[in-house]
Amino acid sequence: MLSVNTNYGALVALENLNATGKALTDTQNRINTGLKVAGPKDDGAVYAIAQSMRSDVASLNSVQNSLDRATSAADVAVAAGQSISDLLTEMKAKALAASDKSLDQASRDAYNADFTSLRDQIANIVSNASFNGINLIDGSTATVQALANAKGDAFLTVTAHDLSLGGSNISIGTTDTISSASNASAMITTVEDSMNALNLALAQLGTDSKKLGIHKDFITKLSDSLQNGIGNLVDADMATESAQLQALQTKQQLGIQSLAIANQAPSAVLALFR
Question: What is the largest CA-CA distance in the chain?
C-alpha cells in the first residue's frame, strides 16, 4: 500500500540508524576512556567488583608505606649497631693494651683518652639512630609495628634493643675508664660481654628487617596482581574497539542512505495523479 501518512520502511530505517548511532557512541566512549566498564551503567556487577578491588589496592599502598617506615627504622638501627660493634672492637684493643702493668702513666693516659672518646661516640651514635622519630636502640621504644594486610588487623613487629651505655646490652657505663691496669683488665671482660649481647641484638634486628622486606615484596606482587585483575575486568580491547568503530561508521553511512531511499517512497504517489 502506498501512503503519504505512514512510511513503514522509513520508520524501520530510522530505528536501525538510531541503534547504530547509540552503538557508535558507546564504542567511541570505550576508545576515549580505554575502559569497557567506566561506570555502573556499563555493567553494575563488574563495576562493583572493580571498585572493591581498587579499594584493596589503595589500602595495600598504605601497607607498603607502613612497611617502608618500619624497615627504614630497623635498617638505621642495624647500621648504628654495626658502627657500635666496630667501636667495641677498638675499645677492647685499648683496654687490653692498657692492662699492661709495665706501661708508664703517660701511655696509660693516652689509651684512656682514646677509650673514653670511643665510649662517648657510642652515646652519640645511639642518640642519632632515629628514623621518622623512631629510635630502636636508645631504650625509648619497645617495639614497632607495621601493617601487614589491607584490613588493618594484622601486623609485623620489630623488637627494639637498648644499645645505650649502661643499658641491657652494653654494660659499659657512661663514666667507665681504663685509667688503671686493674680497670683496664676488668674492662676487657665487660667489653666482650657487651659485644656478645650486641651481636645477638644485631642478628635479631637483621632478621626483623628481612622479614619486613619479604612481606613487602609479597604485598607488591599482590597489588600488581589486583591491578591486573581490575584491568581484565574493565579495560577495553582497543584492537577490537577500533575494528568495531570502523564497522559501525560504515553501517551508519549505509543506514543514512537506506533512510534516504525510504523517504523517497511517498513521492511515488505523485505519479498516480499525473
Answer: 143
CB atoms inside a 10 Å sphere around CB 143: 11
Q: Cell numbers of 43, please?
A: 555493567
Distance CA 115, CA 109 (A): 10
Angle value at C-alpha 217, between 214 and 223, nearest 5 degrees: 140
DSSP state of 263: H
Find, among 115, 158, 111, 117, the residue nearest to 135 by Cα.
Answer: 158
Look at strands 130-131 and 134-135 and give their pairing: antiparallel
To 5 degrees, how large is the angle CA 94–CA 171–CA 199? 80
Residue 182 grid coordinates? 686493674
Q: Strand runs (DSSP E) across 12-154, as ranges?
A: 130-131, 134-135, 143-147
Closest CA to 210 of 63, 74, 66: 74
For the cut 70, the answer to whether the pLDDT of residue 1 exceeds it is no
Tell which residue, 171, 174, 210, has the closest CA to residue 78: 210
C-alpha pair distances (Å), 48 with each of 15, 51, 143, 153: 33, 5, 39, 24
Rounded to the nearest angstrom, the gap between the alpha carbon of residue 267 and the centroid of all alpha carbons in its chain is 72
Spatial separation of the C-alpha atoms in residues 63 and 57, rounded to whole Å: 10
HSE-CB for 135 with a 13 A CA cutoff: 15
Q: In which residue are the cell numbers 541503534 written?
A: 19
Q: Would you give the DSSP letter of residue 157?
A: E
* pLDDT tens profile 29-84: 778 778 888 888 888 999 999 999 999 999 999 999 999 999 999 999 999 999 99
How far apart are the C-alpha atoms of 36 and 15, rounded to whole Å? 25
Contact 121, 174 (CB under 8 A): no
Which pLDDT tens digit goes with each residue over 194-204?
A: 999 999 999 99
Global pTM? 0.77
